[in-house]
Description:
Elements: E1 3-11, E2 17-26, E3 31-35, H1 42-50, E4 60-63, E5 66-67, E6 78-82, H2 93-103, H3 108-121, H4 137-149, E7 155-159, H5 167-184, E8 187-192, H6 195-201, E9 204-209, E10 212-217, H7 219-224, H8 229-234, E11 239-241, E12 244-246, E13 249-252, E14 255-258, E15 266-270, E16 276-277, E17 283-292, E18 297-302, E19 309-313, E20 324-328, E21 335-338
Parallel strand pairs: 3-8, 3-9, 6-7, 7-8
Antiparallel strand pairs: 1-2, 1-4, 4-5, 9-10, 11-15, 12-13, 13-14, 15-21, 16-20, 17-18, 17-20, 18-19
The structure holds adenosine-5'-diphosphate (ADP) and magnesium ion.
Residues 12, 14, 16, 18, 36, 38-44 line the site of adenosine-5'-diphosphate.
Amino acid sequence: MTLTLTSVSKTYPDGTVALKPTDFHVAPGEIVSLLGPSGCGKTTLLRIVAGLETPNPGSQVKFGDDDVTELPVERRKVGMVFQSYALFPNMSVRGNIAYGLKMQKLPAAEIDQRVAEVVRLCKLEPYVDRRITALSGGQRQRVALARAFAPRPRILLLDEPLSALDAALRDTLRDELAGLLRKFGITALFVTHDQDEAMAIADKVAVMSHGTVVQVGPPEELYRNPRTRFVAGFVGHAVHLEGQVAGTTLRTQGGMLTLPRDGENCEVFVRAEDVAITPNGALKARVESSVFLGTHYRLGLSGITAGILYSNHAGLAAPARGTDVRISIDPSKLLLIDQSGATP
Ligand code: ADP
Ligand code: MG
């Protein structure tokens, strides 16, 4: 089911502009994550799609050709999974999954059949008669998903479903969730503030900032071609390389860099993984900090840009603090952000 938002905005009664007029499109079966920092309007957007929040006049939400803008939540046929899961703790897994189907007054045989189907999909067979309180975090997540999916919603909405879990579990469940959503084959909108999660789960990522979607694209495209400063910084922590651009060169405090193309009217950004320590690098820098992180050292470098420029150094040893080093950056790894994208 296609989801189309046209000029959707939301001002709360206290005057907070949570969402500026936003256009947004999700293709049938596509999994899109809304990625952005806390307070940027992700939950507001999701709740408007669900019908839990009324958008400003002039907003339009469509599921396929069906204009649902005025439709109450119970008639929109959306499935929802929240951070808290909101499961009934003392009910069994089966009871939780069947609950919504009973509310819809479906015949008992159909309820049994649908419960069996989602239980199988979500690999919950061994737990159907267990109470929720006797399940692990991961199992609870699968129950929440199964419950949301059982009524055959038109669209599935997930609001930070992994953020209450501890870090070790989160990685496993993230991949599991990505797999399950694809098995469901359902149009899904997934809200997160975590870029790794957004990239791992979604076909497309919509980056939000200050109440609007600033860039939408497949994870690889967002990563390689951020169009705004904000996206460059938020997705992959690119750092602004200060200096004077002239044609295809950038003059920094630490030396000259070659740009991948004419950089007139552009700002130049780079990520830590693309800053290399090499004996004959073009830039001079000083190591201010060196932290061993297992797969690499994270070096903090001064002398190139006003703040600290980080370098992920994969070698078996790293230069110590206070050492002068040479740095090189592959021109193709430099991100050029046009001035039109300079405002967040
Ligand atoms: P996110 O989910 O990205 O963290 P939200 O959509 O929850 O962001 O919030 C967006 C903005 O709207 C924030 O500034 C938040 O404080 C504000 N906000 C959210 N809900 C309400 C509300 N019911 N009344 C007033 N302001 C709200
Ligand atoms: Mg939120």
